[in-house]
Amino acid sequence: MTTRLTLRPISAQEHRDLIASRPSASFLQTPAWAAVKSDWRSESVGWERDGQVVGAALVLYRQLPKVRRYLAYVPEGPVIDWNDGDLAAWLTPLVAHLKKQGAFAVRMGPPVVTRRWTAEQVKAGIADPAVRRLGDVPPLERSQEGARVIAQLHELGWQQQGTEGGFAAGQPQFNFQVPLVDEQGVPRSEADVLAGMNQLWRRNIKKADKAGVEVTRGGAEDLEAFHALYVHTAERDHFTPRPLGYFRTMVEALAAEDPDRIQLWLARHEGDLVAATIAIRVGTHAWYSYGASSTEKRDVRGSNAVQWAMMRHALAQGAEVYDLRGITETLDADDPHVGLIQFKVGTGGQAVEHAGEWDLPLNRAIYKAFQVYLARRGG
């Protein structure tokens, strides 16, 4: 007979030890992420079986205006055995604990894949005027584990959150990933990863090299230069940039946990910064997290050069996945988001759908008021 799972608050060190014992976990589930999201109250909790911590969650609490009730958010987590046929054994003690903490609802994003598509399938979908969304394209693979998790969550009363063009209320449901190991788990060579890219990507990497673009690892002292280019990118591409202080905190917190967890990469041409990125790695999973590029000198292809440098580093560090993060679900050739998808598809990887974000209302009246509040402020 399996011993029952119990849940308790755990120390940051216990939390780090649990993550270190796994092949990987989302960086949003590391204890260090709590320091980055300092405007949320945070807590590490762990599941125990026979006195051993076998699962963990970073919980972020967002207080409702004027009342001491909270949305409890577990981004891209928790870090548990999602293959377990009895998810209630894990989620019931978590919900009971969060309710005692004053949560009116729980939101989580199970790190479980549901479907995958090849770069060729995505490319064909964009070219086909009859295809509007990624979901219209038959996938390469449907995950049985993902289907089981979704069925169990529905049974347990969790509600899947709607996505707008593929972006959920919090984290993206669709990502683009380059596998760095083959189907047998054998590491791919640099030549093999390069060969998997489309002709334009390979040509642009070669062009950057020929033009003399130099890619180097940066340090905290280079954050201001990164941020200036990032703000320039935000103005050009019409998104709201995060402040410099956010990146300083992020680098400091994640690097304190592991010196190679977060890396700043800089691409320069004749002394001019033409592209800069932030990469994050936890175990075997490497992410491209933030990027910036100059409008001038685009022809030297600094963005392709810096991505290739990050992929090579991830390979050398034993990563099994290089994750370019979110894409929208739209494949409409007229949609402004398609350019970003096409850039990522050129790497020759796969589009990956996750289970998405799920809410469990604990106080329906407050939860409904919260949804109205979110709708008024635009989510």
From TrEMBL:
Gene3D superfamilies: 3.40.630.30
UniProt entry keywords in alphabetical sequence: Acyltransferase, Cell shape, Cell wall biogenesis/degradation, Peptidoglycan synthesis, Transferase
Domain of life: Bacteria
Short name of one Pfam family: FemAB
Assigned protein family: Belongs to the FemABX family.
Classification via PANTHER family: LIPID II:GLYCINE GLYCYLTRANSFERASE
Protein name as annotated: Lipid II:glycine glycyltransferase FemX
Organism for this UniProt entry: Nocardioides zeicaulis
